[in-house]
Amino acid sequence: MENQLCINLPPWVADEIGPDRAYPSDSDKMGLAVRLAAANVRHGLGGPFGAAVFEEDTGRLVAVGVNRVLEHRCSTAHAEVVALMLAHATVGHHRLDAGPAAGYVLATSAQPCAMCYGAVGWAGISRLIIGARREDVQSITGFDEGPLHPDWKNELERRGTAVVTDVLREAACDALRAYHDGGGAVY
Amino acid sequence: MENQLCINLPPWVADEIGPDRAYPSDSDKMGLAVRLAAANVRHGLGGPFGAAVFEEDTGRLVAVGVNRVLEHRCSTAHAEVVALMLAHATVGHHRLDAGPAAGYVLATSAQPCAMCYGAVGWAGISRLIIGARREDVQSITGFDEGPLHPDWKNELERRGTAVVTDVLREAACDALRAYHDGGGAVY
Fold first, then answer.
1. pTM (global) more than 0.95
2. DSSP E strands: which ranges in A44-125?
3. pLDDT digits 0-9 by tens, B52-111
4. For A114, which residue in chain B has the nearest alpha carbon?
5. Are A111 and A130 in contact (CB under 8 A)?
6. Are B63 and B89 a contacting pair, CB within 8 Å?
7. ipTM score of complex
8. Is residue A102 classed exposed, middle or buried when 0-12, 13-18 and 19+ CB atoms within 10 A define those classes?
9. Distance spanning both ends of chain A, measured CA to CA
10. Which residue of A has its CA nearest to B64?
11. Is A150 on the interface with B (CB under 8 A)?
């Protein structure tokens, strides 16, 4: 019986981030999430999904995530969960809204699945920025997005997380298409 | 920026498991989940929640989890997610139903929150056994359970996970009460 599992990032993530870690606009933030998704496909490491957490007031990058399900052999290692876990590790608190910034933004290249949607609610995220839609993910890749709450957006906003959709949606869909065209596994 | 976070178990977990690792009945399975929940409260390490994964055909224990949110400073480290991650590490596959057993059962001392519910759907769990109800958790401890899908049970069963509720419900509620009476933090 195993009693430890470590979630980490592939080394090439550093190349995608680059030296300048300020991402002022929502397009800047989503641009990084989508680049991470596309790079994960290019490196053949699993699902075409990327995510990143930023400080709301400064735009400074806090943590990134890519889908690590196949690499870690772990079904929960979705890009959003990886980014949130590493954001907690960086901030040092189980609620990001207890951290020093005025708020914390999660940008994700595709609409969170049922699990990641629930995870966003617990992490202390003030704003969620979404690229591709749930129906894009399902129609382009065939991934099931799970039993999401039918009124997911209002439920999240009622709990203090603002939601912005369709940011760089087409670029996010390009990463999904690249995965599908490359014969990426659907799990 | 941190690029790794490790999920593990407190050392006392071994004492709760004991030398005999066969748990034939649903009560046996839930008994372990509830003992883990109660022990987490007793050791003052966070939320009153325990979970365990078993092989369906043999009843053999595969992995356990307790709530590690405060210890790991990580909002996603719920008992179910910890148990599922460690079950993946033990089985060596991101789908437990690709493992050698005929099926894998998750017993959880309390109804999964919105995030853990989503996680169950991805892990390849054939059967979910629940102790305390969502309304028990909310009324006894004050923990929010999040925006769960209104038809959560059917949605899960439709995807191949059978659901059994109210197993040792009162014992599971005792762990919740012990946490509340001890002034446990609600986060």
1. yes
2. 50-55, 61-66, 104-110
3. 999 999 999 999 999 999 999 999 999 999 999 999 999 999 999 999 999 999 999 999
4. B118
5. yes
6. yes
7. 0.96
8. exposed
9. 24
10. A3
11. yes
